[in-house]
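For the sake of transparency, this paper describes our internal protein records without simplification. The record that follows is passed on verbatim for readers who wish to inspect the format:
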Amino acid sequence: AQTHRNITQSNELESVLAQLQTDLLIIAYELQHHIIRAAALGVPLMLLETHVSTRRAPNVPILSSQFIPTNARDSAAQAATSWQKSTRRRQLRFGLERIYFGGLDRMSALRELAKTVGLDFEQRVDYLRQWQFLFFRDLPTLYLSAWEFDFPHEIADKENYVGPQVLLEREEPAVNGRFQTLMQQVAQEPKRPFIYCAMGSLHGNHNANFLRRVIAAAGQHPSWTLLLSLGKYLKAEQFENVPSNVHLFNMVPQLQVLQQADLILTHGGIATINECILAQVPMLIYSNGFLDRNGNAARVECHGLGQRGDGEQDSAAKIGADIEQMLAENGRFQPNLQKMATVYQQYIDEQ
């Protein structure tokens, strides 16, 4: 009920726009209720998108899909099926939420808001056939990503790519002397494989089992050095019998680590992927399927920037074997990483 009131009754945006006499409003697509209000007022709008293209396109699967399109005869059909499955799930979800919340669900609130402010919801919004929660058909989108990283597709009308936004000069997490000592040791042993594992700063106990398998894999390969970033919620004390070649930290300055890493194990978040490309570090991605991560992992593998693993099923032995193979085949990834990094740098130079 509170969410319903926040969506339908909040009118702060109108006041701000009136005070600023806005010529153009650039707004994140997640702020659907603000977009509806601004669009109804006739304010020029551009939506801000941090993912790769989220629009439906021929032979491009939905962003939550693990499918990699090819030139095979049935590829386009498989990509289309991923969108159709999503549409059916959305129809069921929105219908059940409307019943369960008694018409106070988010979608019902947005519909009510559109009706109140005079926006033709059905005409201007697609809420079933696209990846976004609401897709505004007539509004241009500014993509903070590289078109070249996506699956091949024609750039649609109203799509604008400005390249990945990587904050290279940022305030990194404070670290202790133990981290600096480790990085010095890594620098002094350039031939010793240095592996970095970072599964996102917000993951919790549900990832602990996977990280234990990663630790066990590194323990079976004492010639490696593994730096594992635990994130905010896990503690080093939760992991027993950690081998001497494994180093646990809650947070580390990722850009500094990537400058020396030979390989990263990661969850497939687009920010980390962009940083890995610029640093030219091959990626072994264990996507948890959240938001765009399946699609990001598929694109990494498609472009030869790394490969995918299965965080739910892969044993310590399988994880270790995949790491060993990727380290041995580094030459397979480096030309592709260098090529994509050059593309990224061109975007950065043009900004």
